[in-house]
Amino acid sequence: MEKNFKRTLVTTALPYANGPVHIGHLAGVYVPADIYTRYLRLKGEDVIMIGGSDEHGVPITLKAKAEGVSPQVVVDRYHHIIKKSFEDFGISFDIYSRTSSETHHKTASEFFRKLYDKGEFIEKTSEQYYDEEAQQFLADRYITGTCPHCHNERAYGDQCESCGTSLNATDLINPKSAISGSVPVMKETKHWYLPLDKWEPFLRQWILEDHKEWKSNVYGQCKSWLDMGLQPRAVSRDLDWGVPVPVEGAKGKVLYVWFDAPIGYISNTKELLPDTWELYWKDKETKLVHFIGKDNIVFHCIVFPAMLKAEGSYILPDNVPANEFLNLEGDKISTSRNWAVWLHEYLEDFPGKQDVLRYVLTANAPETKDNDFTWKDFQARNNNELVAILGNFVNRSMVLTQKYFEGKVPSRHQLTEYDKQTLSEFVHVKADMESYLDNYRFRDALKEAMNLARIGNKYLADTEPWKLAKTDMERVSTILNLSLQISANLAIAFEPFLPFSACKLRKMLRMETANWDLLGSIDILDADSQLSQPELLFEKIEDSVVEAQIQKLLETKKANELKNHKAAPIRENIDFETFTKLDIRIGKVLECQKVPKADKLLQFKIDDGLGGRTIVSGIAKHYNPEELVGKNVCFVANLAPRKLKGIESQGMILSAEDADGRLVVIEPADGVKPGSEVK
């Protein structure tokens, strides 16, 4: 049975503050959360949206060490970049804070201490890798070695990024400390564990029986974990960056980031509402909704609820509408490979087009399966939908009103059957959109809003008021009144999805606010009210703009290939006598020209110190002939002559093949005379 809540608390996954945010983050978590929150605000409901940066953990300490700065410097830099990106894209947090704040440290520490005092943890001693040179225990990411599966020599202690296999640090062959490079030793260390197995019966009932309405991807992943059986999970680790474990004998230990981060939702709410935060976290009439990506499902559906249940006074999430992953041009988005569209860079290349990206990411949202973002689809949706349907309809309605009625909303007269039929097509828009939005089906809700624009576009095209203006201005008045009322509906319907464009449209229509209750009404605008000057809501994106983005990605891919390039294996050994038979000499290029009807071949006239020779070489795609004239080159002088395109080639010019397949002629140092032997 549907429960009526007094208020809603929306949380969004805390992005990791060791890099900027990209379109995958936006599509998976932040745009859906913002749509939902804006929708509830439009309805006049009590809702707050909580966000913040996750600023603890090993990757941050690794980045700080690599840069030679403190972890605080790293998180300060990226927290501000991330926060600004969200502000620029209209993600309307009530607070966006951070886990390095004093409030968070205090809240996380008190949370741990309460569970500790209640006896909810298991204390265990285990052996872990220790760096004797650096005198510290090593987190999994601080250990590198050879992967036992694919033999990648740069695998981490938790995962091999070459083959993707999850690892334990003890699985690595030839492990080394990433701090000192020394070979680590095993040493005993004490940690505290949350016994998830204790809460398994409760979680099975709460998720598998009481929340069958959860999205299938969320429910399925939870069931899989529960069916495998839950195990105790460490809540502390040996590290000097994070929230210190608040018990005696825990020097050098901090709360494990998975335990500390979700408490950030609580501490950030405290920071926002120091006097009333408990209403949102402890009152059963509050609806708690976590917006996350699929990699966080287990933490928010199993681990965090077990923590809250163990504490005893908190509410549990009503829903966790996790999305799947968004890929980019057919490849998985990867921060380490720079295979991403970064939000701050997008705004540099597409200023003022936040809503275009919000629209495309929602229309193509990975709600039930992984989806793919392509720049061609981005362009097509902008040009064929935002410009040609939504923008075109609003602009024509406004411009015709300006032309025929001096920019004032004309009166509505007798409705024709076609008018009534058109109006009947969107009478259910409010109920349909609410049904989709209440069930976190944002893609379908957006389609419903765009369908309203399609109805308007068709209505104007079919009624052709510009033709009727010669004979029947009363009819034109009715057509444009209804068109403007549909435009006002669009300003309301699109507000959760396209806040910047909806605001611009409201200003043109002189609507002070977007009142959700009026959605579906044809009496939003009063007759004779003055409109503002029409402006284009969207503009076409040209092929050249999109091609530049595709080229940028191709260059990234090429850079990645070069970075990961491995030299070809050495060929089988030859004996010294065989090698001495090669006669390699220095020659000077006197002439060079392309060989007719041969794309790859260049013909050289070489000064070899012995009267000169002709050599044909397959490097035409890598050099223009004039670039090579006057250069000294190395060539094999005693290669048997052979004919190429009818030209006798008397030797071979030596080139090196670069990682990207480019051939580079080997040049000796200046001052070496033609004919000199290479020894």
UniProtKB/TrEMBL annotation:
GO terms for molecular function: methionine-tRNA ligase activity. It is found in: Cytoplasm. Its main location: cytoplasm. It comes from Coprobacter tertius. This is Methionine--tRNA ligase. A motif ('KMSKS' region) lies at residues 332-336. Its cofactor is Zn(2+). Belongs to the class-I aminoacyl-tRNA synthetase family. MetG type 1 subfamily. ATP binds at T335. Binds 1 zinc ion per subunit.
